[in-house]
Amino acid sequence: MKKNLRNLKIALVHDWLTTPGGAERVLLSLHELFPNAPIYTTIFNQKNFPQFNKAKIYTSYLNYFPGAKNHHQILIPLMPRAIESFDLKNYDLIISDSHAVAKGAIKNKNATHICYCHTPLRYVWYPEIDPRANSSFLRRAVASCLKKWDLASTSRVNYFIANSNYTKQRIFNIYHQDAKVIYPPIDIAKWQPQSGRSNYFLYVGRLVSYKKPELVVLAFNKLGLLLKVIGEGPELKKLKLLAKPNIEFLGKVNDMILKKIYAKCTALIFPTIEDFGIVPLEVMASGRPVIAYRKGGATETIIPGVTGEFFEKQTTFELMQAVKNFHPDKYDRQIIRKQAEKFDQGIFKKKILSYIKSELKIDN
What we know:
The protein is α/β, with parallel strands linked by helices. The protein has two domains: about 5-185 and about 345-360, 3-Layer(aba) Sandwich (Rossmann fold), CATH 3.40.50.2000; about 190-340, Rossmann fold, CATH 3.40.50.2000. Helix content is about 35%, strand content about 15%. The strands form two sheets. A seven-stranded parallel β-sheet has the order 3-2-1-4-5-6-7. The longest helix has 17 residues, at about 135-155. The protein is globular, with a radius of gyration of 21 Å. It starts with 9 loop residues before the first strand and ends with a helix.
């Protein structure tokens, strides 16, 4: 292997670029580290990603399917073949950013493949993500085929990086592979504490059933406390019908508005199990505490009594008790901010570079 990182031909591989999320923030940091490395992805919705306007992006044939850019989920069964269609034989280093199929990219035998893994193939190993996955013989057959492909394609990866210890354990349980934990980046400078606070609680996230927004709405219906809900999704209409007047739905908001809402909230309510969880850290970077379900990546970022609190069960009663026992004035916004600073994108980049150089035995 060559000893100089600058001399390596590097390619970045990503599942799909359709809607912004945590995985896409990782990809952006990787792109900033390696601006000359092309990005290979199955589908690219360019209007949603102006930050990649100067990147060299290659897409698969799926990009030309009608509706692909807005409904990529229906094409997941076709994505293994699409990710394998990329010609990567001329690259020395492949870095995949994967929560689905990107790790299945085919490299040449002398290249090194490092996979930054957000989770094993989410849509088949964790049926709570898509309750329909086992609803018919055909769906079960598709899921079975995807599982077999996912396990087989693991052999194409030389090194795994996990986005949390929670994901590291999943990688070991399913792939029987070890992984180095490097937490995803947040842009600390983007989020700033402000003096004072308002009396509303906050939920931020896609309004889909497995993220448990209904749990939050039902709890605050009974509590009668103010709740702002930011996000869109298939559960929106149902939630609006359930919600009492103390709950306000704001839909999708721009970053300028989001900054103020983060910094002025009493606390973020985070009721779901995430592989890592970017939103809690954005809120903590804004100096505000988080009330979270004690499972998943949140347990690795939130310090009870210092940056927030946990509740033990995903039930209305448990969440209500956590909110009732919550005392917002005991938290110091600067101490909360310091915890979030440990996850800044600058730290992420340094750790990624150090890991690559170490594993590839590169001097500079």
